[in-house]
C-alpha cells in the first residue's frame, strides 16, 4: 500500500478550477478476473484526473491476486486490499470506501463491461453543483452490445420495484457505474455483502434525499463463457434486498450538501495563491522599472 500523490490534472474545462482540484477515488472490487483486470486498470490510468485507484481482491483463486501484486509494484494501484475469503461485491466495496481519500468515489467493475473513459462525464453534474450522485444508465441510448433479453427484462422489473419504493425514476438501478460524493457515501449505512449493494445504496441515497442524476453510458456486456457471473439467483437476492433496504433495514439520515465543496475550497486557495504570486511579480517589476528610471548622478 502506498500513499497516493494527488497532482493537479490538466484542465478539462477552461476556467473551471474545480476540475483541476477535485480528487477522485476509483474503487475496484475483483474476484477471479485474471483475463481482464490488468487491461482494466491500465485503462483506468488513462483517465486524466487526480486519481486514487483502490483495488479489493475478494478471495480470488485463479491467479488474479498475483497479477494485482505485480501491478501494485508498477504503481497502477494506489491501495491494494487482499481478502482471504470471498464475501461478495458489497463487502469488498465497503472495505474500499473506508480507505478512499478522494472527494468523489466511483465504483468500477473489473470485467471491462464499463468504459472508465466515461467517468469524467459522470462527475460533471456533481462538480456543477447539480447532483450528489450520478448513475450511468445502460438504457438511455448509449452504445451497447446486444445481449440477453431476459436479463434486460429482469433489470427493468427490479428497477421498477426499486423506483416504487424509493419514489425515484431511475432507468438502471443495477448499473455498476455509480459516482457519488465521498462524504455522502460514507454517511450511508451499508451492510449488503453481495450484489445487494446496488438496491441498498439506491435506497439509502433516496432516504438521505440525495440529488441523483442519470447519464447515458456505453455497455459491452459479457457472455457466460466469457466470464459473466450474474444469474437468476442474484435477481432473487436483489428482489430481497430492495424490500429489506426500503422497508426493514436501517434508514439513512438526511444528508446536507456542504456550503463549500472541498475542491472549491482548494480552487479558491489556489486562486488566491496565484493572485498573490502575480502581485509579487508586479511589485518586483515595478521596483525594477523605478530603479531603471532613477537619475544617474555624475
Overview of the structural elements:
The protein is an alpha/beta fold and 298 residues long. It has a single domain (20-248), classed as Spore Coat Polysaccharide Biosynthesis Protein SpsA, Chain A (Alpha-Beta Complex), CATH 3.90.550.10. Helix content is 42%, strand content 13%. It has 10 helices and 7 strands. The chain has helices spanning 17-21, 37-44, 64-73, 89-99, 119-127, 149-166, 182-187, 197-207, 232-248, 262-292, and strands at 24-30, 51-58, 79-83, 104-107, 133-137, 178-181, 212-216. The chain has a 7-stranded mixed beta sheet, sandwiched between helices. The longest helix has 31 residues, at 262-292. The N and C termini lie far apart (69 Å).
Amino acid at each position: 500500500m502506498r500513499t497516493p500523490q494527488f497532482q493537479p490534472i490538466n484542465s478539462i474545462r477552461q476556467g473551471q478550477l474545480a476540475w483541476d482540484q477535485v480528487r477522485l477515488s476509483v474503487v475496484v472490487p475483483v474476484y477471479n478476473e485474471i483475463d481482464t483486470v490488468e487491461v482494466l486498470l491500465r485503462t483506468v490510468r488513462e483517465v486524466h484526473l487526480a486519481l486514487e485507484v483502490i483495488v479489493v481482491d475478494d478471495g480470488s483463486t485463479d491467479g488474479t491476486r498475483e497479477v494485482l501484486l505485480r501491478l501494485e509494484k508498477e504503481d497502477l494501484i494506489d491501495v491494494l486490499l487482499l481478502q482471504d475469503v470471498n464475501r461478495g461485491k458489497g463487502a469488498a466495496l465497503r472495505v474500499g470506501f473506508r480507505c478512499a481519500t478522494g472527494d468523489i468515489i466511483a465504483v468500477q467493475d473489473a470485467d471491462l463491461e464499463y468504459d472508465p473513459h466515461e467517468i469524467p462525464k459522470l462527475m460533471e453534474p456533481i462538480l456543477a453543483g447539480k447532483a450528489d450522485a450520478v448513475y450511468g444508465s445502460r438504457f438511455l441510448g448509449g452504445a451497447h452490445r446486444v445481449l440477453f433479453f431476459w436479463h434486460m427484462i429482469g433489470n427493468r422489473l427490479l428497477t421498477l420495484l426499486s423506483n416504487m419504493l424509493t419514489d425515484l425514476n431511475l432507468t438502471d438501478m443495477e448499473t455498476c457505474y455509480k459516482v457519488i460524493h465521498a462524504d455522502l457515501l460514507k454517511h450511508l449505512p451499508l451492510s449488503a455483502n453481495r450484489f445487494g449493494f446496488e438496491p441498498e445504496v439506491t435506497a439509502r441515497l433516496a432516504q438521505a434525499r440525495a440529488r441523483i442524476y442519470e447519464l447515458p453510458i456505453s455497455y459491452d456486456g459479457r457472455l457466460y463463457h466469457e466470464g459473466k457471473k450474474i444469474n437468476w439467483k442474484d435477481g432473487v437476492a436483489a428482489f430481497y434486498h430492495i424490500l429489506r433496504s426500503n422497508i426493514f433495514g436501517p434508514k439513512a439520515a438526511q444528508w446536507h450538501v456542504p456550503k463549500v465543496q472541498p475542491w472549491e475550497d482548494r480552487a479558491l486557495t489556489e486562486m488566491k495563491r496565484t493572485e498573490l504570486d502575480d502581485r509579487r511579480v508586479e511589485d518586483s517589476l515595478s521596483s525594477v522599472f523605478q530603479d531603471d528610471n532613477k537619475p544617474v548622478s555624475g
